Amino acid sequence: MSDFAHASVAELGRLLDARQVSAVELAQLFLARIDAHRDLNAFLDVRPEVTLDLARAADARRARGETGALLGVPMAHKDIFVTREWASTASSRMLAGYMSPFDATVVANLKQAGMVCLGKLNCDEFAMGSSNENSAFGNVLNPWDKGAVPGGSSGGSSAAVAARIAPAATATDTGGSIREPAAFTGITGTKPTYGRPSRWGMIAFASSLDTAGLMTQSAEDCALLFNNMLGYDEKDSTSLDRPGEDFTRDLNIDVRDLKIGVPKEFFGDGLQPDVETAVREALREYERMGAQLVEISLPNAELGIPVYYVIAPAEASSNLSRFDGVRYGHRAAEYGDLIDMIKKSRAEGFGPEPKRRILVGAYVLSHGYYDAYFIQAMKVRRIIADEFQRAFAQCDVIMSPVTTSVAFGFGEKAADPVAMYLADLYTVPGSLAGIPSMSIPCGTGAKGRPVGLQLMTNYFEEAKMLGIAHAYQRATDWHRRVPAGF
Ligand code: GLN
């Protein structure tokens, strides 16, 4: 049984099909692993009885003759998605213990496909952060090195998949929160085109950027889950109405003559030599497979960080205004009048990072500053998106590092918000443009910590991007490596 702990989603589906294991046995196996590795602090809420009920239901569906690649396969959800059966907190004291009356659409879609949820995963408070150090419920440890951060904001998702205590996990990416933690933990992290996954039931941070995606062992697993997870949702006003597609269809794509755009601005100052070496070696691997490297330029991508840190806090300050102690969330125990109640509830409920973003957001949206900051940022966002369109006229896919360095240590950047914000230097441009992008493991750097390779394709080219990643994962085994002790 314990042999199955390292199996991919695709392999687990085949084992279930062949009746070599049951959904209940798999749920028990992973629940036991979660328990054995509690020190990682990856999970915030585990309810074995609920999980086992779902597993029994999946086994019953198979017994009735139903099949499906995901039917009975365990997985877990980032605690940004609301769930009926587990508390939904966004890792904030504001929502401690909150039980949602409904499931997020992404959760409902994967449940419908028969996936068995193992529980809810730790993250930065309201998905704001790059190291998971902003969670109200404690740090998550990086399974490769417990002195290193697992990345953020989806740090529980990345640690859980890297440690193989969950075969796959949902995550969310607003400015890099899937790709950066995936890079830091040596797994595959994928963000689809903005608008393809539903935002219904995703606790909102910055609505024009928030995108649900996945942490998996491989591009192939991601394709299998996307087949069930993505799709139009009338409950989300920015959901894109696109015909359904099979995201596995390009897994055997031929990468000969593929044009890989290498943006020179993503290899400049600040990129650490260990990361650069691993990324360049991955590019050489693609060349060996017959692909061609083309130098491209994204001259305004470096403005991504200042633009993002105007737009994301502006939207956050608006989204977080709903937490007023009246409708839901924390309410102060003692207060005077209504205003005092709201003030005290918000002061107690929010941690320092959401408070910082609310202040910045309110400032850039206020009369007199709106044109100077917010409107200006929106204009530069458009310029960055247009630059990607020009780049994709010259290449099929863009590749770059995901981060400037390997995972850093706890406390190294926590006191300096700007240093922390720079962790997303290479991921934010793709978020502002809304294009699909992913991180795949491509080597190790300082202290044996993992390095990620970023892939970006044009809108709606997820299947192609996953195929290009899969070609690399057929030729190399970085994605199969599991940290010692797991
Ligand atoms: N690290 C970035 C931030 O703090 C991105 C977070 C995210 O993608 N959710 O906003």
Can you tag this structure with a few keywords?
486 residues, alpha/beta, Amidase signature (AS) enzymes, 8-stranded mixed beta sheet, 3-stranded mixed beta sheet, 15 helices, binds glutamine
Structure description:
By secondary structure, this protein is of the alpha/beta class. It is built from 15 helices and 11 strands. It has helices at residues 9-17, 23-36, 48-63, 105-112, 155-162, 179-185, 219-229, 273-288, 304-319, 338-349, 352-365, 370-392, 417-421, 428-433, 462-475; strands at 43-45, 74-78, 116-121, 169-173, 188-191, 211-216, 259-263, 292-296, 397-401, 437-444, 450-456. The strands form 2 sheets. Strands 4-6-5-10-11-9-7-8 form an 8-stranded mixed beta sheet, with helices on both faces. Strands 1-3-2 form a 3-stranded mixed beta sheet. The longest helix is centred in the C-terminal third of the chain and has 23 residues, at 370-392. Glutamine (GLN) binds next to β4.
